[in-house]
Amino acid sequence: MIPTDLYKTLKDNGTISAESFDKLTEKQQSSLFSLHWELKTLLYLGVVLLSGGLGILIYKNIDSIGHQAILAGIAAICGGCFYYCFRHKNPFSRELLKSPGVLFDYVVLLGCLSFLTFTGYLQYQYQIFGTHYGMATFIPMLVLFYVAYEFDHLGVLSMAIANLAVWMGVSVTPSSLLSNANFDNQTLIYTYLLLGLILLLVGFFSERFNFKKHFRFSYLHFGIHISFIALLFAYFNHYDSATAILWLLILFGLGYYLYVDAMRHKSFYFMLLVILYSYVATSILVFRLLDGMSNTDSIYMLCLYFIISAAVLILRIIRLNKQIKAS
Amino acid sequence: MIIYNTTWLKHLIIQDQMKKAHRANQLSAEELQAIQHKYPVGFYSSNLFLRIGLFLVTTTLTSFAFGLLSLLLSNSHIVESPGYFAFLGILSYVALEVAVRVYHHYKSGVDDALIWTSGSLLLTALYIFLDKSAFSFKGYVDELLISGLVFLLSTYFTLRFAHMAMALLSFCAFIAFIFFAWNSYGFYTLSTMPFLLIIMATMIYFFALQLVKKYWIYQDCLGMLQFISLLTGYAAGNYFVVRELGSSMNHVVLLPDQDIPYAWFFWLWTFCIPFVYIAMGLKRKDIVLIRTGLILIAAACFTLRNYHHIASIEWILVSSGALLLATSYGLIRYLKTPKYGFTVAELDSDHILDNLKVESLIVSGTFGDGTTAAEGSRMGGGSFGGGGASSDF
């Protein structure tokens, strides 16, 4: 609730100029009501329902309707969407591209989803890629990355990153990463780690070469989660050997670098991720050290460790927040 | 009653409003700075991510500290008495007051964690105390006691800290209290319950609507109350809720062809209320009503689908998706130039990047998993990510 005479007070004591006062009062009188986010949510839901429904429809009727008919239907939707996008798109730019309309982003999304259905169906029915399963995921991935960069679409970029992970033989969503926990498979862990580091690198390069700088967030988001989780898994995988500590050292080194980077970018989110993952790693280490004592004292020590470390962490985070806000 | 410095709270609102004006190019940067200087805010607040982080770390701290204390005292019998929980609760409440008063924490994560910790400890203490003492409670009284205690505690925290989640909890506890009280002591409970709850929720909604003009300090809490009371008012008359809850309360099993009394009223309620909300919201330009109405349309559709098989699920998905796309496309075209004071343009570009990013995470969350779901299924995830092929790795 803003006091009605606030603007007048501000104008009278000279805090704001007469020009700004006019603008402010004019806006207060004309108060337009925006349905922007409501309509966007409806559009998003529409795209999700439609593409999901189409997927099930094809799955259930695969034997009764002709394959050509299905293919033609999906291709028509996909082609229509991309036709619309190319008609309405803004010229390509290395910077952040403002979307030409509210609808545009969702047409891109629908086009990509139906394209994926299309290629998946082609592969299932006609084996166009034969047994080259790598190709079957590689080509959709390329298309997705191209679309993400061409139309400047963060959602499609996330899908492309997910596809990159599929291509490398893993799934990328952090939840499935944890639920499919597989400590025994070393190649899987190394693949995760490689994927995470590649994503981090791409994130840094997008900023360094000023090429779609705002995509950095998505790359770093996936990169940080994947590489830290992979490093922790690698540690547990080598738990009994002497090299185990090496993985945690790599983790701390990576953490320090990302921490400095997050400070430089004033990114609360990445800073918090790095701090929390490093805290987990430290706690694992302390837990292991104290477990070696294996008596009641170690439980007291563990409690003390958590009390002190948590207190230090709280003070540290608060200090950091103030620092970032002040700068 | 409120613990915060009300002048600062007022300044916070002024600053937010002026930052909005600055983003809309109605205010120059120097003017904004002058205003921020003139109306200072001394609170320590975190943004969403740090708030979650601080919440987690503070909870870790308190649980290990109390764990250590209990461990040290484990040989004595103090730990089992309600007084011990009260002691811990008061300890964390004092810490909360210190954090807010001395260190000026305001929505920082530390205060959130301490509110929940002290609240639940005090609740435990009170419950054990009342349960152990002379009262011989039976049946519903146990639920009555808990919901009553939760209501009292959360109302106190709401009033003192203007905490939204506590306002929500307080409302839910109140409704639960009414529900259990009427269930054990009311008359014709089964047929009167929906109407009683509808009346209660409606009263609370209009009450919150009235209060928001006067008590601006609690505007977030009152907004939350409006939202949840609208939702509860709908749910109390929703056919599904009335039928299933009613039959489980009464320990009867209704056959599919059996119907509940006044079924026509509840069906009418299920379908009309969402549109009434949206119409009211558009008329009064009230965003809470519009959003609630939109959510409830989905609820109405699920209710119908649950009892009447209209079409197979995929046709419903396709047609509702197409309908949604068509409707929103039509509205966007229609409102391209603002009409009746409505527009599709984004008026406040606050956190536009953040919003985009969050959305991109949602997209990956919904579609990312589809890629692995394909394993072993015929064509399962084929619609997403070409996962149909990857299953053969």
Automatic annotation (TrEMBL), chain B:
Residue ranges crossing the lipid bilayer per the database entry: 48-72, 84-104, 113-130, 164-182, 188-209, 221-242, 262-280, 287-307, 313-332
Keyword set, alphabetical order: Membrane, Transmembrane, Transmembrane helix
Domain of life: Bacteria
Name of the protein this chain belongs to: DUF2157 domain-containing protein
